[in-house]
């Protein structure tokens, strides 16, 4: 019996998404396959970017549609970025979400989009289509050999033989590709940077970099103690502040040292007992090799980022203030600096702490604990879950561009001769930055990325202990919204733990993840048997790639661009005694003009949003919508309603804040790690 199928086809709106190639389609159904049909409307330019074209295919009734098999006949710039297809036949309707490329000269099989587990597949033809898609994906997404990622999470193997799949590449971004932003920033600065005839003074001449760029707001207050403490709770790395009951080992500090710095009549021991002393500790830098290189003329260049630590005090006005700083852990060789010391000593000590924080932030809090721990989940998902699997649908939007930016970072920033070698203290021939990342990985588990557990471990979950902690107060409601959202989606498909245990595709996902991506010791369970465990893991992943990455990434320009606030290298060894430094000595300690230029450019690039960014709370809805079931739409709407409530709360708080904290506004948090 003949049937008429109407296909409405949406081509992505990005520049270059359309094609002039001949496109044909085969309808794959439970009763068989149709003949190929060329999709060509008379007197019409088919498949233009942003278009919705409608075609009618007359063929034998193929039953319930399982897939659409598109063939791209090829030509010049013939690749075609297909968003989705809707097919109707009488009262029947099917939807095929895709959001990927149909490459020139290639065939792409687009699976019908109803979310379902393998056990719910209604025909052998559908099962075959799912398996075929995964077989193809495993060829496109091979794991990097274990020896190549030793000491780090598993990653995609990229080579000339196995290039990054086009589906993972940036789609014509102008501001989202960090290489482009770096180049534009360098050009803009150098165009407006005056020729300096006098000796370079980084503390003064740094303002010359901003002739064509916005000046970071903290530039006018960076020396202030309150500003220094503020960055511990709402800066680029608000993950270290820890309540401490006693002084760190090796930190020799007496009541005389802090005279006048505590509430009158309060001893140091009493302040500790009253839970008003907090610690920033960057001891992880101990034994990490720092940049050290001798050039062809025999001149040696060295850089430092010490294993520093800083005590902060919560004063009677409930404001944090830095109380004491030690630029190392040895009491005999590392004196403890306080605000009672000379202005030059105290300012230098704070700058060294920021340098220590910056090196730790870049390689551990940022690169490792967001970018690189996310990649194994991307890999396991693409290799083991077909398009209709509900977990694929839940995760896919949050993984867009992650493989691209990770590979770009490995090549452009972290590799030998990369940008980090030019200006970061732990860069250089000894690859200290990579050793730092590996050291951080040995200490890390996925549960460390759960904000409530992390805050509790650091003793700062309770607002009565640390009242002004914007990162905490913004992150927790977002975690809770994700937890409800992920749990509701999973429970819709997994009614019991047995449903998960019997899901062969998810069990393959788990096996691939734990054998090639992350050791099972890094995960909260050894076997994937309980729906609650899966919900916990996926909530952590989605929180990490969206909220957590936003927190440790998008303030980089504000935090690092005014380089004296947070230099990523110091050019002199930390002072070993007090009272020796002069105010002008700091100029020789902080980065050179060239190093500053790189730090500003990288900070601006990594703080940039893509022109096709998808945010957690989009103004007009998510462009890439994978679920079509009404029940899932209700769950998504409930999630985004919680985000709207949180956005209102953030705006209300920031209206009265001396320094607003806006980086965790839900409408400005990208869904995934795109830069």
From TrEMBL:
<dbReference type="InterPro" id="IPR000907">
    <property type="entry name" value="LipOase"/>
</dbReference>
<feature type="domain" description="Lipoxygenase">
    <location>
        <begin position="115"/>
        <end position="675"/>
    </location>
</feature>
<dbReference type="InterPro" id="IPR036392">
    <property type="entry name" value="PLAT/LH2_dom_sf"/>
</dbReference>
<dbReference type="GO" id="GO:0016702">
    <property type="term" value="F:oxidoreductase activity, acting on single donors with incorporation of molecular oxygen, incorporation of two atoms of oxygen"/>
</dbReference>
<dbReference type="GO" id="GO:0046872">
    <property type="term" value="F:metal ion binding"/>
</dbReference>
<dbReference type="Pfam" id="PF01477">
    <property type="entry name" value="PLAT"/>
</dbReference>
<dbReference type="InterPro" id="IPR013819">
    <property type="entry name" value="LipOase_C"/>
</dbReference>
<feature type="domain" description="PLAT">
    <location>
        <begin position="3"/>
        <end position="116"/>
    </location>
</feature>
<keyword id="KW-0479">Metal-binding</keyword>
<dbReference type="InterPro" id="IPR036226">
    <property type="entry name" value="LipOase_C_sf"/>
</dbReference>
<dbReference type="InterPro" id="IPR001024">
    <property type="entry name" value="PLAT/LH2_dom"/>
</dbReference>
<dbReference type="Pfam" id="PF00305">
    <property type="entry name" value="Lipoxygenase"/>
</dbReference>
<protein>
    <submittedName>
        <fullName>Lipoxygenase</fullName>
    </submittedName>
</protein>
<keyword id="KW-0443">Lipid metabolism</keyword>
<dbReference type="GO" id="GO:0034440">
    <property type="term" value="P:lipid oxidation"/>
</dbReference>
<keyword id="KW-0560">Oxidoreductase</keyword>
